[in-house]
Amino acid sequence: MIETKGRSCKGKRGYPTSTAADTQRRDLIARGGVRLATYRCRHCKRWHVGHLPKPRRTR
Ligand SMILES: [Zn+2]
């Protein structure tokens, strides 16, 4: 399996727990009113806050 090194989380802030990430997520949503999600990163094993992944459409 080929993985690009740290591509998805470079420059992103990582949180050790989902609770910490969720706190940040709520703060960002309160500021910008955007839809965000917390997810665990498989690269750094931390939690990130990011935009919701777009659903993959099947034709
Ligand atoms: Zn990461």
For the structure shown, list the relevant keywords:
two-stranded antiparallel sheet, 59 residues, globular, alpha+beta, binds zinc ion
Please report the total strand number as a whole number. 2
Tertiary shape: globular
Q: Which parts are unreliable, with pLDDT below 50 for 5 consecutive residues or more?
A: none
String of helices and strands: HEE
Which sheet architecture does the biggest sheet show? 2 strands, antiparallel
Radius of gyration, Cα only, in angstroms? Answer: 13 Å
Helix content: 25-40%
How would you describe this structure to a colleague?
The chain has 59 residues and is of the alpha+beta class. It has a domain at 18-51. It is 25% helix and 17% strand. It contains one helix and two strands. The protein has one helix spanning 18-32; strands spanning 36-40, 47-51. The chain has a two-stranded antiparallel ribbon. A hairpin with a 6-residue loop joins β1 (36-40) and β2. The protein starts with 17 loop residues before the first helix and ends in an 8-residue tail after the last strand. The mean pLDDT is 83.
Fold topology:
Layout: H1 18-32, E1 36-40, E2 47-51
The structure holds zinc ion (ZN).
Question: Can you summarize this structure?
Answer:
Helix content is 25%, strand content 17%. It is of the alpha+beta class and 59 residues long.
